[in-house]
Design brief:
Order of helices and strands: HEHHHEHEHEHEEEHEEHHH
CATH class of the largest domain: Alpha Beta
Strand content: 5-15%
Structural class: alpha/beta
Strand order of the largest sheet: 3-2-4-5-7
């Protein structure tokens, strides 16, 4: 295994964080080498069988995932924030999870944020070179005035994305809690840069070589769902398995809110709806 090089002041994180072997995300999958010739039915079975491996692999990393939940919940209790940082599919999934926290958990929009290489325009189309700009990653952390109470979670399928490492380096300099989620267990990370927690499952190669919107994307979505959901559970935003802080912003969610109040209080539908109306549709007030 190659020795880990020490950082020099002039070096960017992308110069010194290396993979000691070819990342699993870049290898060819022997099961799909005839993908272009498979009948559609067989290709569908192949793709779904590969995706089905993801939860089993993630379960082997339950200790790291549990620790991530604890770190994020602790940050929230202390008035800190969670920042996802990524490029391409990784960044888009971070933005997606962040955007779903306010309506699901009545969380302030600034509590969970997604930082995307290339900015908002990159959510819809590729911004050439954005992921290679480690200085831009650091700048995003500075702009958001990251503090020691915050958690910065970098998402990089191969583990070497410069934008992500620039953000993690700056976050660590500011004494924030840093986490890396990647799918390459063969990273050589200098001690000065190493995040407090590295989650690096080996999902194996993708069905379509290098297309990390497949298994890596599925795994990322599962992990981010898990972290924010269970952190919010620990903040008291869930009772039993019910979303007691959901924002009832449409007819479907208002109906759900009424049914939640019914289940928690044994009141009638009409009584539950009336209680919600009296309390501005805040479930936790309506059930008192």
């Amino acid at each position: 295994m190659p020795a880990v090089r020490k950082a020099k002041p002039s070096q960017s994180p992308s110069d010194i964080v290396q993979s000691t072997r070819l990342s699993p995300t870049e290898r060819r999958n022997p099961r799909s080498q005839n993908l272009d010739k498979l009948p559609v039915r067989e290709a569908v079975t192949l793709m779904l069988s590969e995706e089905a491996r993801v939860p089993r692999i993630l379960l082997r990393h339950h200790q790291e995932l549990s620790r991530a939940v604890g770190l994020v919940a602790r940050a929230f209790r202390r008035g800190g924030r969670l920042m996802y940082v990524g490029a391409g599919t990784s960044g888009r999934l971070g933005v997606l999870d962040a955007s779903e926290c306010p309506p699901t958990f009545r969380a302030p929009p600034e509590l969970v944020q997604g930082i995307m290489a290339g900015g908002d325009i990159a959510l819809r189309r590729s911004v050439e070179g954005a992921e290679d700009d480690d200085a831009a990653g650091a700048k995003e952390i500075a702009v958001r005035q990251i503090r020691s109470k915050d958690v910065v979670l970098g998402i990089a399928a191969s583990g070497t994305t410069p934008f992500v490492w620039g953000a993690l380096r700056e976050a660590k300099r500011r004494r924030a809690t840093t986490i890396l989620l990647c799918f390459n267990p063969f990273l050589a990370i200098p001690g000065a840069l190493r995040p407090q927690l590295v989650i690096a499952p080996n999902l194996g190669p993708e069905v379509l070589t290098g297309s990390t919107r497949l298994k890596a994307g599925t795994a990322t979505k599962l992990v981010l769902n898990l972290i924010t959901t269970l952190a919010m559970v620990r903040l008291g935003k869930v009772k039993s398995n019910l979303m007691v802080d959901v924002v009832p912003s449409n007819a479907k969610l208002r109906d759900r809110a009424v049914r939640i109040v019914q289940q928690l209080t044994n009141r009638s539908y009409e009584q539950s709806e009336a209680a919600l109306r009296r309390n501005s549709w805040v479930i936790q007030r309506a059930v008192r």
